[in-house]
Amino acid sequence: MQFRKAQQSDLETVDAMMEALIDEIYVKESPDVRETLKANFTGSAMEETLQDEQATLFVVEQEGEVRGFLFGWLFFNTFTIYWIYCRPQCRGRGVIKHLLDYVAEKLVEVGCYKMEMWAYAEHNRFLNFAHKLGFKKGMLIEKSMFGFRLQNIYKCMPGHEEIEKQKRIKILGEAGQGVKLLSHTLASILAKLGNKVSLTLDYDSAVRSGRISADLIYSDIEIENPIIDEADVLIKFTKTREWFPAKNLVIDEGMCGGQCIDCALQCKKGTEYGFENVSVQKFGSKIFINMIALGRILKYIGVNIMLINITDLLPPKYIEKNIAAIKYGFSYRDGMA
Length: 337
Fold this sequence. Notes:
The chain has two domains: about 1-160, Aminopeptidase; about 165-330, Pyruvate-ferredoxin Oxidoreductase, domain 3 (3-Layer(aba) Sandwich), CATH 3.40.920. It is about 30% helix and about 30% strand. The chain is built from nine helices and 14 strands.
């Protein structure tokens, strides 16, 4: 067996296996659920996702045929497995075990301390299989966006005790941009997924104008210092001369004052997304800028919004448009059910 990162030529085969996997796991769910999952993890959607640095697709090949795959998302020191599959005729031969061992070796090389996944809670056969592979049970979500239960399972890498486990997100904006709602909703989602969470808000004295910032930290362990000195991700909605150290920067492209030579999502300032422009064009008002940004942040840190019942976490006003904005921000695609 040969294990490697997927190539462009593998994607058609992986698409077919992905559809088979979704049909197998979610056989008890409605066709709409299965079609939504396929629309966001096959074809052009998968190709677009793989352009993100955090996304990784591994395949296992034998006798010139791709017989299984693993798709996951690496955010700093945690790797979240979204999908893992082996062709039925190849099962019982250790394909998944060897694939996971290979991926674990690669993750240790880049300082990853934990591999985790969210499994269909009723899929006892898979959960028992995962237990034999060294995975432990974590958080159980009783009801997700689609109404089915999800079980977190995880496996720590060798030397995980010495690796940084806290993730730090800094959000900078102005009054009226919904930073408070965004940060509270994000904190609630992360807590619902079983994390320890700390959220600190800082306002200017002005009531309807002025600056607002949020320090959000989440971790597997207790958080001793709620203040962020250096962010893993900095999200900026507003122009400011204030400099803040961060490993990754996400900004609203509306802050860019000039045309780039190569106009794309990436630029020397960070990763740009048209939060405000999209909010107005697709949802009729800039008040949805925070929810579009929330969807993008969730994808950036590897949280699949289809695992969370977001309806329970948002105010009832504009609930449908807020959820649509989160879904759009997550995928930057229309048509998510």
